[in-house]
Amino acid sequence: MSYQPIENYGIIGNMRTVALVGMNGSIDWYCYPQFDSPSTFGAILDDKKGGRFQISAGAEGVRHKQVYWPSTNVLVTRFLLGDGIAELEDFMGCPGSRHPSGRKACASSRSHEMGAREGPYLRRSNDARLERETPGIYTVSRQ
Question: Is residue 1 part of a domain?
Answer without folding.
Answer: no
